[in-house]
């Protein structure tokens, strides 16, 4: 992974502006980053590659999403009943 990307991940503080979600309500942004993290993690793990680039999505969803939602989603992913495609 390039040094610039590693530096950005290291210095990350809160979710940056995302033009796909211009409104104040960031619920969809939260959910999308949760999905993106799991998709990235699954795709890179299946290829045997380093999954550290996926940490970006994890940090974004952890800063946007209430932890109660994340806990519920993690349980649903483990049970196989999560409504999104991960």
UniProtKB/TrEMBL annotation:
It is found in: Mitochondrion. It comes from the Eukaryota. InterPro entries: COX6B-like, CX6/COA6-like_sf, Cyt_c_oxidase_su6B. Keywords: Disulfide bond, Mitochondrion. Its main location: mitochondrion. Belongs to the cytochrome c oxidase subunit 6B. Component of the cytochrome c oxidase, the last enzyme in the mitochondrial electron transport chain which drives oxidative phosphorylation. This is Cytochrome c oxidase subunit.
């Amino acid at each position: 992974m390039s040094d610039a990307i590693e530096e950005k991940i290291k210095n990350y503080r809160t979710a940056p502006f995302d033009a796909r979600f211009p409104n104040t309500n960031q619920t969809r942004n939260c959910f999308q980053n949760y999905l993106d993290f799991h998709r990235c993690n699954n795709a890179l793990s299946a290829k045997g590659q380093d999954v550290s680039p996926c940490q970006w999505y994890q940090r974004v969803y952890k800063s946007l999403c209430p932890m109660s939602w994340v806990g519920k989603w993690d349980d649903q992913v483990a049970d196989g009943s999560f409504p999104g495609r991960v």
